[in-house]
Amino acid sequence: MKRALPFHSPNVWPPAPLVTLFFIIYAMVVGGLGLMELRMGIASEVLSDSQEFKKIHQVILGAAAVVYALYRLVRFHPACNRPYAAWLMLSPWTSARPLPLGPVHPVWQDAVVIGLLTAMAQWLAHVDPTLPVVAFGLTWLVGMTIIMAITRTWPAFLALGFLWPALILPGVTGWPGMMIIVGLILIILLGHRRSLQSFPWPFLSNANPLAAVASGRSGQNVEIRIEGVEVAPSYLGWPNLVLSPKIRDRSIADSTSFCLSALAGWWLYCVIECSEMDSSTGPGLVFVFAFVAALLRLALYCSNVGPPFSVLGRLASGQLIQPGFDQVFLTPLAVILTGIAGGMVVKHSGSWYASATSCVFASLWLLLFIGGPTRQSWILTGRLRFRTPANQANSQRLRRI
Amino acid sequence: MIKVTDVSHHFGLRPVLCHINLDIPDGHLVALMGPNGVGKSTLLGIISGLITPAKGHVEINGLWRRGSEESELKIRRQTTLLTDHPWLPEFLTAREWLLAVGQLYDIDADHLMDHIVRLLDLFELADKGDAPIRTCSNGQKKKIAICGALVTETPVLILDEPFTGGLDPSAILALRRVLKHLAESSKVTIVMASQIPEMVELLAHRIAILSGTHLVAYDTLDGLRAQTGCSGSLPEVFEKIVHPQTTEHLERYFNRPKA
What we know:
The complex is a heterodimer.
Chain A: H1 16-40, H2 44-48, H3 51-76, H4 82-90, H5 108-124, H6 130-150, H7 154-166, H8 175-197, H9 218-226, H10 254-275, H11 281-302, E1 305-306, H12 311-317, H13 323-347, H14 353-370, H15 375-381, E2 385-386, E3 398-400
Antiparallel strand pairs in A: 1-2
Chain B: E1 2-11, E2 14-24, E3 29-33, H1 40-48, E4 55-60, E5 63-64, H2 69-78, E6 79-82, E7 87-89, H3 94-104, H4 109-122, H5 138-150, E8 156-160, H6 169-184, E9 189-193, H7 197-203, E10 206-211, E11 214-219, H8 221-228, H9 234-242, H10 246-254
Parallel strand pairs in B: 3-9, 3-10, 6-8, 8-9
Antiparallel strand pairs in B: 1-2, 1-4, 4-5, 10-11
Helix pairs in contact in B: 3-4, 8-9
């Protein structure tokens, strides 16, 4: 059996309109430069060697590399291309086979395209020749990291989440930086394989395979919609939305909560180390975050619901504390108290303030994640009153009858 | 079976419901009646899970409302509420919306599509079924909302003023027959708030009458007649229970002594 070469695909050349557009823009810039030199009667090196003109070249070449990287992802990755994913769902394709439209991973044609841009940067534009390589590489790597999250390839995404900020740490230059980049590439390639193995991804559950051939007529739109009402969509109106027997379980596993909290702390640590933030800002930062996060969580839980009866009602009935409703205040309160205590710890942490701030920050996130009740439990068992959709953001799209 | 046990509720300082107890057997259609603002919609909201009562609890088919996540989800699968002022998505067509609602309740797609066609025909919405809901009149929107409740095929229906809101006579007749059929043939339990005594008289197995925060009567029409000693129609029985002094007031009004 003939085995396909891993770094070859005839399909991945950039499309002619994209190439034409690039050359038109570039020719206009270079031609404009020539015209200006001709009319001004000056030597050709004067304008083309000016810093401003070099910057224009850099922007054009960098943008071309970025657009090409985005094209490679959007055109060839099923996660970025819904009709493609819907068609794949109908086909006998498995992750053991190459993707039918072409590979997502870099192939030799990419080297040719980026090599061409590099050559133009070196000999035509006289700018840093690594610029197209860096722009293409960064865009592709960041795009793939986002795709890991979209396709729920969590182990790879978490590993990437820890590696990316390490690049901005002050001590990470030269070989350590190269090692991190190699690590990023390896994790992305392994994660990409893993994500293809888990196809079709959960987020595609709402997509009907017919979407690939849907012409946009209303009837077919209905076909698409009816296949997967896994949760109550917001357009269902009142009271179907709040009394729906299907609600989205947004609770996060404890292990995931711990990893995400550690990730948040690590990012903050890298940012503090990179920006050399003044230690006096740490306590304020922690407290403000705790306060805002507590309010946001409260707002998330209490949007469209209220207590079964008001403060006056509590006074009248003698039921000052309603445990079934007041439980919603416990976690925000704990977050604010932890923020105050954490701020004091950070204030007295001296030279360890970056580590202390990031640890407190991670603790706050952990508390926000694991503090009860879960949103599903709150909606289903909390002692509350659902409000009519007059205050809902989508009320414009609903009409009371 | 719906069991409302010692339910009390108040809005602020104002008590709305006090010590309400109701047992509604399977396949019964119970009509909830009472003066305006007496708490009928609040009681329906409590039964349907929109409002947690200040005191007491509701059981539906042996499951405690809001008792646990599992029981609440099971109850939601078995219960549908039609509010007196439902909100409909203006940009969807009636058919699209009904499909989405049916899908929420895991109705088989083929059966659902067939049921929607029959419902649209029944309520004379076949022409409007594929037009955006915003193009429908108020009465047509009310019909669509009723179809939305019926398409779920849940064993418990909670209906707040289903016969009001601009329904035309043929729709009222159709709804009346559907509700009667559901209760008698399909053993669907229906709790309905209504202010139309003729409809209640024709449909309800039992009538619950609320007055001044309390449930003052809960019986069959004959039982209510026996209770009040009035052999007249439901409006007369209702007046005897809720406003016993109304007849006296009327007599005094018409027979005032001449000056």
